[in-house]
Design brief:
Layout (H helix, E strand, L loop, with lengths): L8 E5 L4 H12 L3 E6 L2 H10 L7 E5 L5 H15 L4 E4 L12 H32 L2 E6 L12 H20 L5 E8 L2 E2 L14 E2 H14 L3 E4 L1 H12 L2 H7 L17
Parallel strand pairs: 1-2, 1-4, 2-3, 4-5, 5-6, 6-9, 7-8
Helix pairs in contact: 1-6, 3-4, 4-5
């Protein structure tokens, strides 16, 4: 008697809230097995239990994505315990305002890059060779529409997300022909705890579950790059076309992301 193949497996970082949790819910709805990663393991386990996801459907791994050894160990544990995922989503990230004139904010920038960039590469690391050996898989980097142009007070975040886009493109070209696809998903404004404290307008804001459904379909299709929602993609492209002198005037007076210490920049 043949044994049915196990359901496909997705590995998601930053899965304790926001976009990561919404993606976990969408994959669970589609019948996938889940490997959920974050520092807040109890919160993830409570979420899984509330949805009736037993150990056969969901495993939780505690890791600090900003620490390469920690997230690499989580990936290795996933392979040992659940097998090699079909999809790995590097979603964990932070967004904190910064002012280059403030010494403390240089540390904010370093922390942002450690999580948003080095953490993404470390998330993918345990899976690359195994996926290439299998000849299939999807490595998904969650970027942002903020990668398209710099915004005042958002230097660390915009720079880190621009780096995400460039890094994923580099990885995509390296893995071309291997059967492993690299997908870059750039959210516009999504209603999550990360955006709820923003002090500026958020055009085309969408609920997290709507974003997750569109991202799920994008990843399944193996699309190399997509902005969600598409309207923000159009806005971003138009902003990219603006001459610098015009763009600089457009963003003057725009609200800024709150800095880590809660004190607003004088500029």
């Amino acid at each position: 008697m043949s044994t049915a193949a196990p359901a496909p497996l997705v590995f998601i970082t930053g899965a304790s809230s926001g976009i990561g949790q919404a993606l976990a819910a969408r994959y669970a709805q589609a019948g996938w097995r889940l490997a959920l990663v974050a520092r807040r393991t109890a919160q993830m386990q409570d979420w899984a239990t509330a949805r009736g996801l037993g150990v056969d459907r969901c495993a939780v791994y505690g890791a600090d994505v900003a620490d390469p050894s920690s997230i690499v160990a989580a990936g290795q544990a996933c392979i040992a315990d659940q097998g090699l995922p079909e999809v790995v989503i590097a979603n964990a990230g932070i967004s904190v305002g910064m002012d280059t004139a403030e010494r403390a904010d240089l540390d904010v920038m370093a922390d942002t890059f450690a999580l948003n960039n080095v953490g993404m590469a470390a998330t993918f690391h345990p899976f690359v060779n195994a996926m290439v050996g299998r000849g299939s898989g999807r490595l998904v980097g969650i970027g942002s529409v903020a990668a398209i142009r710099g915004l005042p007070g958002h230097g660390a975040y915009c720079a880190s997300k621009a780096a995400v886009v460039a890094y994923c493109e580099s990885l995509r070209t390296e893995l071309h022909g291997s059967g492993v696809r690299v997908v870059t998903v750039c959210p516009g404004y999504v209603d999550t705890p990360l955006t709820q404290g923003n002090r500026y307008g958020m055009p085309f804001l969408i609920p997290a579950d709507v974003f997750a459904d569109r991202a799920f379909r994008t990843i399944e299709a193996g699309v190399s790059y997509r902005v969600i929602p598409w309207q923000m993609g159009v806005v971003a492209k138009l902003m990219r076309l603006l001459p610098n002198a015009v763009y600089d005037k457009v963003v003057q007076g725009r609200g800024r992301k709150r800095r880590r210490d809660g004190v607003d920049s004088p500029r």
